[in-house]
Amino acid sequence: MESKDMIFMKKGDGESSYAQSSFLAQRIASISKPVVQSAINSLFHENLLPYKALNVADLGCSAGPNTFTLMETIIESVKSKCGELNCQLPEFQFYLNDLPVNDFNTLFKGSSSFLERYEDVSCFVMGAPGSFHGRLFPTDTLHLLHSSYSVHWLSKAPRLVDKDGLPLNKGKIYISKTSPPSVKEAYLAQFQQDFGLFLRSRSQEMIPDGRVVLIVNGRQSSDATSKESNFNWELLAEAISHMVSLGLIAEEKLDSFNIPYYMASPEEVKDVVDREGSFAIEQLDTFYIENGDRAIWDNEEKIAQSVRSFTESMMLHQFGIEILDKLYANFTHILIRDLARQTEPNKITSIILVLRRNVRLPSP
Ligand code: SAH
């Protein structure tokens, strides 16, 4: 099953929606603001600005609110730089991309309210539905490309069965300490293929010297089974296993399910960029947030609500709507127990990557 048919963040703008519960992604959007500001300065430096129009794409934008934070950061940075240089403000063209099943209605409602705040600026917003694992825009269109907390999603989960068709990752839904090495290898191979295709597609769409700002959920450790990279998936697998033991989910349904998500290390990210060859790395850093940080989540229930807002569509697809509330009640219980037992908090690691599109060499 391809991810494009089953991944979507919880729709609408109600309390449990992704728009209202993406506490972590909101924090990350604010941490990455200076990186976006510096990418704008680079465009001035490259003489890609001031120009008539600035074309920006946000890939995997969901339904808000973080895409609006990005738009605001970009407009304010360009305004301030144009003020300094005493030059005319360009027009802004924002392309907002996500999978076709995304809640574009909520996104467009939010974008019209946003545009009302910027009536003095010539700013246009367009939806760009489709998968970023392939072309989305015409050749040489984009000056700046941004994507936050999206590119760790794979186009599909790797096929994890042995030569007899039996499941390789029994009782788990992601790389775990008990998974055979072939599970980790298959996940890495899928990430390399997907991220390589992502870069190849963007390399066509970007103007030479344009900038890419990517923030992904990853890991600092070289060990893909380290707790930093799998704690949520371990707890969710435990909650599903519990439902199996109660006879509410068939064991085969759990054994055949693996999430289409990969938390890469900085070295793995660098390796794919280097091999693809169209971009130069300007920045590759990691930072972490402690799971349960009270400045981000008010309480444990809010953490569980955030996890539900980005995993529910997959659980619904694999296990059915009837078990969702019980499954997440169980998950919340397991999460609270896990947080209470911790001697030190789990780290949620993010990787920030800034790329410059290389100038295309004329063909020999
Ligand atoms: N950037 C937003 C949303 C992050 S959630 C924020 O910072 O809040 C991840 C988003 O990536 C989801 O909306 C999901 O639908 C989208 N996504 C996942 N795979 C995708 C793909 N192949 N193409 C486009 N969007 C994708």
Topology:
Blueprint: H1 18-21, H2 23-31, H3 33-45, E1 53-59, H4 66-85, E2 91-98, H5 104-117, E3 123-129, E4 142-148, H6 181-205, E5 206-218, H7 227-245, H8 251-255, H9 266-276, E6 279-290, H10 300-319, H11 324-341, E7 347-357
Parallel strand pairs: 1-2, 1-4, 2-3, 4-5
Antiparallel strand pairs: 5-7, 6-7
Helix pairs in contact: 3-4, 6-9, 7-11, 10-11
S-adenosyl-L-homocysteine (SAH) is lined by residues 3-4, 7-9, 22, 25, 29, 59-62, 66, 97-99, 102, 131-133, 148-150, 153.
Q: In summary, what is this structure?
A:
This protein has helices at residues 18-21, 23-31, 33-45, 66-85, 104-117, 181-205, 227-245, 251-255, 266-276, 300-319, 324-341; strands spanning 53-59, 91-98, 123-129, 142-148, 206-218, 279-290, 347-357.
Provide an overview of this structure.
By secondary structure, the protein is an alpha/beta fold. Helices cover 43% and strands 18% of the residues. The protein has one domain (3-357): Vaccinia Virus protein VP39 (Rossmann fold, 3-Layer(aba) Sandwich), CATH 3.40.50.150. It is built from eleven helices and seven strands. It has a seven-stranded mixed sheet, with helices on both faces. Helix 7 crosses helix 11. 43% of the residues are buried. The structure holds S-adenosyl-L-homocysteine.
- Report the CATH superfamily: Vaccinia Virus protein VP39
**End-to-end CA span:** 42 Å
- Helical fraction equals 40-55%
Q: Give me the Rg, rounded.
A: 21 Å
SSE pattern, N- to C-terminal? HHHEHEHEEHEHHHEHHE
The gross shape turns out to be globular
Q: Which CATH first-tier class would you pick? A: Alpha Beta
Bound molecules: S-adenosyl-L-homocysteine
- In CATH, the topology is named Rossmann fold
- Characterize the biggest β-sheet: 7 strands, mixed
Poorly predicted runs: none
Q: Which strand order does the major sheet show?
A: 3-2-1-4-5-7-6
Mean pLDDT: 92
How many DSSP H or I helices? 11
Please identify, by name, the CATH architecture: 3-Layer(aba) Sandwich
Structural class: alpha/beta
**What share of residues are in beta strands?**
15-25%
Number of beta-strand segments: 7
Count of distinct structural domains: 1
